[in-house]
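Input chain follows. Return C-alpha coordinates only.
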Amino acid sequence: MTRKLPTVADLKAGKGKGQKTMLHYRTLEQAAAAEAAGIDIASIPPDLLTNPRYREVAPTVFSMTGRAHPEAGTPDDYLRLAGQLLHAGADAIYCSGSLQTVEMLAREYVPVVGHVGLVPSRATFTGGFRAVGKTAASALALYENCRRYQDAGAFAVEIEVVPPEVATAISARLDLLLWSMGAGPGCDAQYLFAIDILGETRGHIPRHSKVYRNFAAEHDRLQAERIAAFTEFREDVANGAFPEPQHLVMMDPAEHEAFLKGIGA
Protein backbone atom coordinates (compact mmCIF):
# COMPACT_ATOMS: atom_id res chain seq x y z
CA MET A 1 0.00 0.00 0.00
CA THR A 2 1.31 3.44 -0.91
CA ARG A 3 2.03 5.51 2.15
CA LYS A 4 0.30 8.88 2.47
CA LEU A 5 0.88 11.90 4.65
CA PRO A 6 -1.23 11.41 7.79
CA THR A 7 -3.55 14.09 9.09
CA VAL A 8 -4.13 15.05 12.71
CA ALA A 9 -7.37 13.08 12.51
CA ASP A 10 -5.45 10.01 11.30
CA LEU A 11 -3.00 10.20 14.19
CA LYS A 12 -5.78 10.65 16.74
CA ALA A 13 -7.72 7.72 15.25
CA GLY A 14 -4.65 5.55 15.81
CA LYS A 15 -4.47 6.17 19.56
CA GLY A 16 -4.24 2.91 21.45
CA LYS A 17 -3.42 0.97 18.26
CA GLY A 18 0.36 0.85 18.57
CA GLN A 19 3.18 3.33 18.70
CA LYS A 20 4.41 5.61 15.94
CA THR A 21 8.05 6.51 15.41
CA MET A 22 9.24 10.09 15.74
CA LEU A 23 12.57 11.78 15.05
CA HIS A 24 14.11 15.18 15.47
CA TYR A 25 16.35 15.87 12.48
CA ARG A 26 17.91 18.93 10.89
CA THR A 27 19.10 18.10 7.36
CA LEU A 28 17.63 17.12 4.01
CA GLU A 29 19.76 13.97 4.04
CA GLN A 30 18.28 12.91 7.37
CA ALA A 31 14.79 13.78 6.13
CA ALA A 32 15.24 11.62 3.04
CA ALA A 33 16.50 8.75 5.20
CA ALA A 34 13.51 9.11 7.54
CA GLU A 35 11.13 8.95 4.58
CA ALA A 36 12.86 5.88 3.15
CA ALA A 37 12.87 4.19 6.57
CA GLY A 38 9.15 4.78 7.10
CA ILE A 39 9.41 7.14 10.09
CA ASP A 40 5.97 8.52 10.95
CA ILE A 41 6.51 11.89 12.66
CA ALA A 42 9.29 14.46 12.73
CA SER A 43 10.12 17.55 14.74
CA ILE A 44 12.21 19.85 12.56
CA PRO A 45 13.51 23.43 12.63
CA PRO A 46 11.64 26.06 10.59
CA ASP A 47 14.53 26.59 8.17
CA LEU A 48 14.36 22.92 7.13
CA LEU A 49 10.55 22.92 6.87
CA THR A 50 10.67 25.99 4.60
CA ASN A 51 13.42 24.56 2.37
CA PRO A 52 11.82 24.17 -1.08
CA ARG A 53 13.17 20.62 -1.31
CA TYR A 54 11.86 19.41 2.05
CA ARG A 55 8.54 18.00 0.86
CA GLU A 56 10.28 16.56 -2.17
CA VAL A 57 12.43 14.33 0.04
CA ALA A 58 9.95 13.74 2.91
CA PRO A 59 6.46 13.83 1.40
CA THR A 60 4.77 11.48 3.89
CA VAL A 61 6.48 12.33 7.20
CA PHE A 62 4.09 14.23 9.50
CA SER A 63 6.26 17.27 10.20
CA MET A 64 5.97 19.49 13.25
CA THR A 65 7.96 22.70 13.61
CA GLY A 66 8.03 25.83 15.71
CA ARG A 67 10.16 27.79 18.14
CA ALA A 68 10.57 27.75 21.91
CA HIS A 69 8.42 30.47 23.44
CA PRO A 70 11.24 32.84 24.52
CA GLU A 71 12.19 33.09 20.85
CA ALA A 72 8.69 32.96 19.37
CA GLY A 73 7.46 36.06 21.20
CA THR A 74 3.93 37.12 22.13
CA PRO A 75 0.79 35.07 21.44
CA ASP A 76 0.14 37.25 18.38
CA ASP A 77 3.71 36.60 17.19
CA TYR A 78 3.11 32.88 17.73
CA LEU A 79 -0.06 32.99 15.63
CA ARG A 80 1.70 34.90 12.86
CA LEU A 81 4.59 32.40 12.91
CA ALA A 82 2.17 29.46 12.90
CA GLY A 83 0.36 30.84 9.87
CA GLN A 84 3.60 31.26 7.96
CA LEU A 85 4.82 27.76 8.80
CA LEU A 86 1.50 26.06 8.04
CA HIS A 87 1.42 27.88 4.71
CA ALA A 88 4.96 26.58 4.05
CA GLY A 89 3.81 22.99 4.61
CA ALA A 90 3.99 22.29 8.35
CA ASP A 91 1.53 19.69 9.64
CA ALA A 92 1.58 20.94 13.25
CA ILE A 93 3.10 23.67 15.39
CA TYR A 94 5.14 23.07 18.53
CA CYS A 95 4.29 25.49 21.34
CA SER A 96 6.13 25.59 24.65
CA GLY A 97 4.31 28.77 25.65
CA SER A 98 1.45 29.23 28.08
CA LEU A 99 -1.82 27.33 28.00
CA GLN A 100 -3.45 30.62 27.03
CA THR A 101 -1.25 30.74 23.94
CA VAL A 102 -2.04 27.11 23.15
CA GLU A 103 -5.76 27.82 23.50
CA MET A 104 -5.54 30.89 21.27
CA LEU A 105 -3.74 28.94 18.54
CA ALA A 106 -6.15 26.01 18.76
CA ARG A 107 -9.10 28.38 18.58
CA GLU A 108 -7.69 29.59 15.25
CA TYR A 109 -7.53 25.96 14.01
CA VAL A 110 -3.78 25.61 14.37
CA PRO A 111 -2.79 21.98 15.12
CA VAL A 112 -0.84 22.49 18.36
CA VAL A 113 1.62 20.20 20.14
CA GLY A 114 2.62 21.06 23.71
CA HIS A 115 5.44 19.85 25.93
CA VAL A 116 5.39 18.38 29.45
CA GLY A 117 7.85 16.76 31.79
CA LEU A 118 11.41 17.90 31.24
CA VAL A 119 10.91 20.95 29.00
CA PRO A 120 14.36 22.44 28.26
CA SER A 121 13.11 26.02 27.88
CA ARG A 122 11.54 25.97 31.35
CA ALA A 123 13.56 23.29 33.15
CA THR A 124 14.50 25.69 35.93
CA PHE A 125 10.95 25.37 37.30
CA THR A 126 11.21 21.58 37.58
CA GLY A 127 14.68 21.39 39.10
CA GLY A 128 16.86 21.43 35.99
CA PHE A 129 17.60 18.66 33.52
CA ARG A 130 16.17 15.75 35.48
CA ALA A 131 13.18 13.43 35.42
CA VAL A 132 9.75 14.83 36.25
CA GLY A 133 6.92 12.90 37.95
CA LYS A 134 8.88 10.64 40.29
CA THR A 135 6.70 11.48 43.30
CA ALA A 136 2.94 11.07 43.57
CA ALA A 137 2.49 14.82 43.91
CA SER A 138 4.57 15.68 40.85
CA ALA A 139 2.96 12.85 38.84
CA LEU A 140 -0.50 14.21 39.69
CA ALA A 141 0.64 17.69 38.66
CA LEU A 142 1.90 16.24 35.39
CA TYR A 143 -1.44 14.55 34.76
CA GLU A 144 -3.24 17.81 35.47
CA ASN A 145 -0.93 19.64 33.08
CA CYS A 146 -1.69 17.15 30.31
CA ARG A 147 -5.41 17.41 30.98
CA ARG A 148 -5.17 21.18 30.72
CA TYR A 149 -3.34 20.89 27.40
CA GLN A 150 -6.16 18.70 26.15
CA ASP A 151 -8.78 21.17 27.38
CA ALA A 152 -6.87 24.03 25.74
CA GLY A 153 -7.13 22.30 22.36
CA ALA A 154 -3.71 20.71 21.88
CA PHE A 155 -3.96 17.37 20.08
CA ALA A 156 -0.59 16.06 21.34
CA VAL A 157 2.21 16.72 23.80
CA GLU A 158 5.82 15.70 23.89
CA ILE A 159 6.29 13.98 27.26
CA GLU A 160 9.96 13.97 28.19
CA VAL A 161 11.86 12.02 30.86
CA VAL A 162 8.87 10.85 32.89
CA PRO A 163 8.53 7.46 34.66
CA PRO A 164 6.86 5.04 32.24
CA GLU A 165 4.13 3.99 34.67
CA VAL A 166 3.09 7.64 35.01
CA ALA A 167 3.10 8.32 31.26
CA THR A 168 1.19 5.10 30.56
CA ALA A 169 -1.51 5.92 33.08
CA ILE A 170 -1.90 9.46 31.73
CA SER A 171 -2.10 8.26 28.13
CA ALA A 172 -4.79 5.72 29.02
CA ARG A 173 -6.99 8.37 30.61
CA LEU A 174 -6.80 11.12 28.00
CA ASP A 175 -7.59 11.50 24.32
CA LEU A 176 -4.45 13.62 24.01
CA LEU A 177 -1.63 11.95 22.07
CA LEU A 178 1.54 11.49 24.13
CA TRP A 179 4.82 11.42 22.22
CA SER A 180 7.41 9.82 24.47
CA MET A 181 11.02 10.88 24.81
CA GLY A 182 12.24 8.78 27.69
CA ALA A 183 8.71 8.20 29.02
CA GLY A 184 8.29 4.54 28.13
CA PRO A 185 6.30 2.45 25.65
CA GLY A 186 2.82 3.23 26.95
CA CYS A 187 2.52 6.37 24.83
CA ASP A 188 1.52 6.99 21.22
CA ALA A 189 4.96 7.56 19.68
CA GLN A 190 8.61 6.96 20.52
CA TYR A 191 10.72 10.05 19.92
CA LEU A 192 14.52 10.26 19.53
CA PHE A 193 17.04 12.69 18.07
CA ALA A 194 18.66 11.63 14.82
CA ILE A 195 22.09 12.75 16.00
CA ASP A 196 21.85 10.38 18.97
CA ILE A 197 20.67 7.44 16.85
CA LEU A 198 23.52 8.06 14.41
CA GLY A 199 26.17 8.44 17.11
CA GLU A 200 26.94 12.02 16.15
CA THR A 201 26.47 13.43 19.64
CA ARG A 202 29.78 14.46 21.18
CA GLY A 203 29.91 14.01 24.93
CA HIS A 204 26.89 13.08 27.02
CA ILE A 205 24.35 10.71 25.48
CA PRO A 206 20.91 10.98 27.13
CA ARG A 207 19.87 7.88 29.06
CA HIS A 208 16.69 7.56 27.01
CA SER A 209 18.58 7.47 23.70
CA LYS A 210 19.94 4.50 21.81
CA VAL A 211 22.92 4.70 19.46
CA TYR A 212 22.45 2.61 16.32
CA ARG A 213 25.45 3.75 14.27
CA ASN A 214 28.83 5.44 14.89
CA PHE A 215 28.81 8.39 12.52
CA ALA A 216 31.22 10.31 14.79
CA ALA A 217 34.00 7.87 13.91
CA GLU A 218 33.13 8.19 10.22
CA HIS A 219 33.18 11.99 10.49
CA ASP A 220 36.60 11.77 12.16
CA ARG A 221 37.87 9.50 9.39
CA LEU A 222 36.55 11.84 6.71
CA GLN A 223 38.11 14.85 8.44
CA ALA A 224 41.48 13.10 8.51
CA GLU A 225 41.11 12.33 4.80
CA ARG A 226 40.10 15.96 4.17
CA ILE A 227 43.22 17.25 5.92
CA ALA A 228 45.41 14.75 4.06
CA ALA A 229 43.99 15.79 0.68
CA PHE A 230 44.46 19.49 1.40
CA THR A 231 48.02 18.83 2.59
CA GLU A 232 48.86 16.87 -0.57
CA PHE A 233 47.47 19.73 -2.69
CA ARG A 234 49.62 22.27 -0.82
CA GLU A 235 52.72 20.09 -1.26
CA ASP A 236 52.03 19.53 -4.97
CA VAL A 237 51.78 23.28 -5.53
CA ALA A 238 55.00 23.87 -3.60
CA ASN A 239 57.02 21.31 -5.55
CA GLY A 240 55.49 22.00 -8.95
CA ALA A 241 53.58 18.73 -9.25
CA PHE A 242 50.33 20.65 -9.73
CA PRO A 243 49.06 21.70 -12.16
CA GLU A 244 49.96 19.02 -14.73
CA PRO A 245 49.38 19.30 -18.49
CA GLN A 246 46.04 17.50 -18.30
CA HIS A 247 44.74 20.24 -16.01
CA LEU A 248 45.46 23.01 -18.52
CA VAL A 249 44.17 24.26 -21.89
CA MET A 250 47.15 25.02 -24.17
CA MET A 251 47.32 27.38 -27.17
CA ASP A 252 48.10 26.24 -30.66
CA PRO A 253 51.87 26.84 -31.11
CA ALA A 254 51.32 29.16 -34.07
CA GLU A 255 48.82 31.23 -32.09
CA HIS A 256 51.22 31.36 -29.18
CA GLU A 257 54.02 32.64 -31.45
CA ALA A 258 51.68 35.31 -32.87
CA PHE A 259 50.71 36.35 -29.34
CA LEU A 260 54.34 36.72 -28.28
CA LYS A 261 55.10 38.84 -31.33
CA GLY A 262 52.07 40.96 -30.52
CA ILE A 263 53.40 41.83 -27.08
CA GLY A 264 56.93 42.36 -28.31
CA ALA A 265 58.40 39.33 -26.68
